[in-house]
């Protein structure tokens, strides 16, 4: 494993300055964003990046290259401060450059990542409101809490439309405007070819489709409308055409797709819970490693809109449990690997709360085998939760973002809060235990164990046996010794001098 840098965390401005120097300077940066743990950069020239120097920077937990963005992993909290400092170092008006084409799934992830803080906050507030209702506390306050927690989810389609247009090169506010049609109560008065239109029908999927269509219409108008009329005609045509298509077609199609998605997720866990949980829990860590887990956010959001909770997230959260168990096993076995043990001590609290990147890039992935054994822990934990889904005790989450222990306030099940908590906690325990056991027994090469296993302090080099000194009879003291000492007689060639005792 490469050396882990445990220097004191530098100031965000120092980290940002060092990163900018090794990234090729301000002129090489086209776009900057961040998620919960990663600083994401779109670069003009990837060849200008000094990759090894970046991975060696204090505070950097890892680097992910996906072909379109360069992602530097800092961990939760730190990444926000470093991103702000990094943006302050960039030139205010960079030269416009065509953005490279991103894979569709990564673009979709970029749409929903900025929404995660609101999803977490509203989900926690909703969980608090639910506890107050269950225990019949503060009945005068619970309606206000419900309004606070539900307002964002009622209008999430607008935010999705805004971010979609921004991500795909359109005018963000036009994307939000056409997406607002999906949740506008007045659509209930529309007769769409004999079909009743329901406000919110299609949810985030309908908003996503409407905003994508708006971007295409806007681009078409920009190339054909005279400049003098562009400010009037382009927005009007975009909103009118896209809005009508949304009301008379996209909302219905997206609603059917959302219903099919919900039915598929329910059937998957009802009839194949163990197998589905095993596969989902075991494969989620590799998805996190390459950043593709963000593409699952629209599915979670759709399930929350439709069913009130996503049944997939508690299963996927078991991957983090396997990772924690693997990290504890690494800490126990590699007792002389001071760098990796220090990394585990600093990253384990985040891992317990479901933020897995610090442990992935700082511990299990560089070691190799522990990453695979961590996946086994996640698979068995997911299978455990899936088993109870087959037995009728489905566990869901009312919001997305947190996992691990942080998911407890957001859980919702079919048979009351106590059963739900027990099932989820049991899955975490299984994930911890299997991740630990698999890593402890199968997660290390012989060479790694020979180098780092054993007591905390390296054993002293084996000393050669020292023969016991020859016993020499003490001479009888002279009753009248000479004033000056008499030199000892030289030893005969056959006799060897008596060895001196070891000192120190």
Break the fold down into its secondary structure elements and pairings:
Blueprint: H1 12-22, E1 29-34, E2 38-43, H2 51-55, E3 62-65, E4 70-73, H3 78-89, H4 104-112, H5 116-134, H6 142-154, H7 156-167, H8 172-183, E5 191-192, E6 195-196, H9 203-222, H10 227-290, H11 297-307, H12 313-316, H13 318-333, H14 338-352, H15 357-367, H16 369-390, E7 395-397, E8 411-413, H17 416-442, H18 446-452
Antiparallel strand pairs: 1-2, 2-4, 3-4, 5-6, 7-8
Description:
- The chain has helices spanning 12-22, 51-55, 78-89, 104-112, 116-134, 142-154, 156-167, 172-183, 203-222, 227-290, 297-307, 313-316, 318-333, 338-352, 357-367, 369-390, 416-442, 446-452; strands at 29-34, 38-43, 62-65, 70-73, 191-192, 195-196, 395-397, 411-413.
- The strands form three sheets. It has a four-stranded antiparallel beta sheet with strand order 1-2-4-3.
- It has 504 residues and is mostly helical.
- The radius of gyration is 32 Å and the shape is globular.
- Mean pLDDT is 84; it is low at 1-6, 93-99, 456-461, 479-488 and 492-504.
- Helix 8 (172-183) packs across helix 10.
- It contains 18 helices and eight strands.
């Amino acid at each position: 494993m490469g050396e882990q840098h445990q220097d004191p965390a530098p100031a965000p401005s120092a980290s940002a300055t060092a990163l900018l120097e090794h990234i090729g300077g301000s002129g090489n940066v086209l776009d900057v964003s961040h998620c919960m743990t990663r600083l994401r950069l779109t670069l003009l020239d990837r060849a200008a990046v000094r990759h090894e120097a970046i991975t060696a920077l204090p505070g950097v937990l890892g680097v992910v290259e996906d072909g379109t963005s360069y992602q530097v992993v800092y961990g939760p909290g730190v990444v926000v401060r470093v991103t702000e400092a990094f943006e302050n170092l960039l030139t205010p008006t960079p030269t416009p450059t065509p953005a490279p084409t991103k894979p569709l799934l990564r673009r979709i992830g970029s749409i929903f990542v900025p929404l995660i803080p609101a999803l977490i906050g509203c989900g926690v507030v909703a969980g608090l409101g639910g506890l107050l209702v269950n225990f019949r506390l503060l009945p005068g306050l619970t309606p206000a809490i419900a309004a606070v927690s539900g307002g964002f989810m009622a209008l999430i389609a607008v935010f999705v439309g805004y971010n979609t247009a921004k991500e795909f090169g359109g005018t963000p506010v036009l994307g939000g405007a056409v997406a607002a049609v999906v949740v506008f109560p007045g659509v209930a008065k529309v007769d769409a070819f004999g079909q009743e239109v329901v406000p919110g029908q299609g949810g985030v999927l309908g908003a996503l489709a409407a905003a994508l269509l708006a971007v295409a219409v806007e681009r078409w108008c920009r190339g054909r409308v005279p400049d003098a009329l562009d400010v009037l005609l382009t927005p009007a045509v975009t909103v009118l055409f896209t809005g009508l298509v949304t009301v008379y077609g996209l909302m219905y199609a997206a609603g059917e797709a959302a219903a099919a998605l919900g039915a598929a997720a329910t059937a998957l866990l009802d009839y194949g819970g163990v197998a589905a949980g095993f596969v989902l829990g075991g494969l989620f860590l590799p998805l996190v490693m390459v950043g593709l887990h963000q593409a699952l956010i629209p599915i979670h959001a759709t399930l929350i809109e439709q069913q009130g909770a996503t049944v997939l997230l508690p299963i996927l959260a078991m991957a983090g449990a396997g990772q924690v168990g693997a990290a504890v096993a690494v800490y126990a076995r590699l007792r002389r690997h001071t760098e990796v043990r220090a990394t585990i001590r600093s990253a384990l609290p985040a891992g317990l709360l479901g933020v897995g990147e610090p442990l992935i890039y700082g511990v299990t992935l560089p070691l190799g085998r522990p990453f695979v054994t961590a996946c086994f822990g996640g698979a068995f934990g997911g299978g455990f939760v899936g088993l109870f889904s087959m037995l009728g005790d489905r566990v869901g989450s009312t919001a997305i973002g947190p996992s691990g222990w942080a998911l407890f306030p957001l859980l919702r099940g079919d048979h009351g809060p106590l059963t739900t908590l027990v099932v989820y906690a049991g899955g975490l325990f299984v994930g911890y235990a299997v991740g630990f056991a698999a890593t402890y027994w199968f997660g290390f090469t012989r060479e790694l164990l020979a180098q780092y296993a054993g007591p905390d302090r390296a054993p002293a080099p084996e000393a050669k046996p020292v023969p016991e000194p020859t016993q020499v009879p003490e001479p009888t003291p002279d009753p009248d010794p000479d004033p000056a000492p008499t030199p000892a007689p030289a030893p005969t060639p056959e006799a060897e001098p008596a060895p001196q005792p070891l000192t120190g």
